[in-house]
Amino acid sequence: MKTSTSTLRPLDLADIDSVLTEDEKAVRETVRQLCERSIDPYVTEWFERGELPVARELAKELGSVGLLGMHLEGYGCAGMSAVDYGLACLELEASDSGIRSLVSVQGSLAMFAI
């Protein structure tokens, strides 16, 4: 039986990093930093209040880093890959599924239909 010499990484049990490009890792890191700065410190309070009082400001920030419609082309959208979109959604979901839904609905249901 062959034993692995790689280190077990709890946040990457499937070793996804081994198949990602540096650009894809950068997308993930950008979204992770946005979540750490603008979502994680406040999400408990938003949940307890049952509202997202900074929806407009947060949407502007999500848009400024290219998350809104990121997998679409035209109309100022980034036209990024499905992998980039999936990584971004994974990071958003880790912080708050409602915020991830906001990004998905806006890009996939609203903007795609338009």
Structure characterization notes:
This protein has 114 residues and is mainly α. It has a single domain, classed as Acyl-CoA dehydrogenase/oxidase, N-terminal domain (Butyryl-Coa Dehydrogenase, subunit A, domain 1). It is 57% helix and 4% strand. The chain has a two-stranded antiparallel sheet with strand order 1-2. A hairpin with a 2-residue loop joins strand 1 (73-74) and strand 2. Helix 1 (22-38) packs parallel to helix 4 (82-95) and helix 4 (82-95) packs antiparallel against helix 5 (97-113). The model has no long low-confidence stretch (mean pLDDT 87).
Concise overview:
With 114 residues, the chain is mainly alpha-helical. It has helices at 22-38, 43-49, 55-64, 82-95, 97-113, and strands spanning 73-74, 77-78.
Strand order in space, largest sheet: 1-2
What's the CATH architecture name?
Answer: Orthogonal Bundle
Task: Count every helix, treating DSSP H or I runs of 4 or more residues as helices.
Answer: 5
Largest sheet: 2 strands, antiparallel
CATH evolutionary superfamily: Acyl-CoA dehydrogenase/oxidase, N-terminal domain
Query: What is the N-to-C succession of helices and strands?
Result: HHHEEHH
What is the terminal separation in angstroms? 55 Å
Q: DSSP strand (E) fraction? A: under 5%
- CATH level 1 class label: Mainly Alpha
Q: Helix fraction?
A: 55-70%
Which of globular, elongated, flat, extended, rod-shaped describes the shape? globular
